[in-house]
Write a structure and sequence with these properties.
4-stranded antiparallel β-sheet, Rossmann fold, 18 strands, globular, 5-stranded parallel β-sheet, alpha+beta, Dna Ligase, domain 1, 328 residues, 27% strand
Length: 328
């Protein structure tokens, strides 16, 4: 069995559970003992914050203790740190792109300029100090480094734009609003940046920037777009490509998150086998591309759940069953 270390586990119970079903020994870490995903792993550990100088050392200790073969970050918070620290975390395979790609994906403006340079569709985007005189509205004021749809404001005219640029507390950019239909493409690449799989899904409904309803679709253009975007960036492991198909048919990428997306359960249910692919790479196996190998028409609708804990011997432990007392 392959020991997999998950960083910044947070609420990603879905990912840890999927890896366990695939045969992984899951070791989950977080800085907060109330992160619910900790309690769905085989082993759990509280580690320093990502910006603490002891963070990488704590992960290294866990790699040695549990003979970890694979490290999978579950948020965007530590990608650059992990990319910088591969040698310190050996022999585990760190499933993140290199430092340059990680930093580029974290900064939406840098990503936009990269896509322009590589001929990949991307909405017109400007820094606030470089706005054209003939700017067409509506536009979006977006944080350059943001997640969960935080610090995004829609401006219908110049007055609103001026207001939001003064109002926002985030280092921002201004982007033309896409008018087409939004899609997400969950991709997975090997350690050399070759795209092995791409599964498009519709965005029926999202909340807080995370998909809560969607459906897998077999769309050759979107599958190819996911491959082109991920290979241009040299993604390693998973990434979520967010894009719009504009009224003229052009695909424009708006964001790339180099991690398992918020809609992870949907491609998993559609047969992505991304946990198995990840462990195969960690074990040195050669994996061939399987583009288009998934079930279309699989629908996801999500709901809240919970972990119930009690203090036992000075530590929090899950209580079984987790149902509310008195409920069947």
């Amino acid at each position: 069995m392959t020991a997999v270390l998950f960083t910044c586990a947070g609420q990603r119970v879905d990912i840890i559970s999927a890896f366990r079903r695939a045969g992984a020994i899951a070791i989950a870490t977080d800085a907060n003992q109330l992160a619910p995903a900790l309690y769905h792993a085989d082993q759990r550990a509280i580690v320093p914050r990502v910006d603490d100088f002891g963070y990488v050392a704590a992960l290294g200790d866990l790699v040695a203790l549990h003979d970890v073969r694979l490290i999978v970050p579950l948020t965007d918070l530590d990608h650059v740190v992990l990319a910088q620290s591969r040698s310190e975390l050996e022999p585990a395979v760190v499933l993140v792109p290199d430092e340059e790609t990680s930093a580029r994906c974290a900064d939406k403006y840098l990503a936009h300029t990269f896509f322009e340079e590589h001929g990949i569709g991307t909405p017109p985007t400007w820094l606030p100090t470089e706005l054209p005189g003939d700017l067409r509205y509506p536009v979006l004021v977006k944080a350059r480094k943001g997640f969960g749809s935080r610090h995004i404001y829609r401006a219908a005219n110049e007055s609103e734009l001026d207001f939001f640029l003064r109002y926002t507390s985030a280092d921002s950019m201004v982007q033309s609003e896409c008018l087409g239909v939004e899609f997400s493409i969950d991709v997975f690449c090997d350690l050399g940046g070759r795209c092995l799989a791409a599964i498009p899904r519709t965005m029926i409904e999202s909340k807080g920037g995370e998909s809560i309803k969607g459906m897998t679709i077999r769309d050759a253009q979107l599958i190819e777009f996911g491959r082109v975007v991920s290979e241009a960036l040299r993604i390693i492991g998973p990434a979520n490509v967010q894009c719009f198909r504009e009224p003229d048919g052009e695909l424009q990428v708006t964001d790339v998150n180099p991690r398992f997306g918020g809609g992870f359960p949907l491609p998993t249910a559609a047969g992505s086998r991304y946990p198995e692919l990840a462990m195969s790479l960690a074990n040195g196996e050669v994996v061939e591309p399987r583009l288009g190998d998934f079930r279309e028409g699989v629908v996801m609708t999500r709901y809240f759940s919970q972990v119930i804990l009690e203090e036992v011997g000075g530590a929090l432990e899950p209580v079984q069953p987790e149902a509310v007392p008195g409920e069947a």
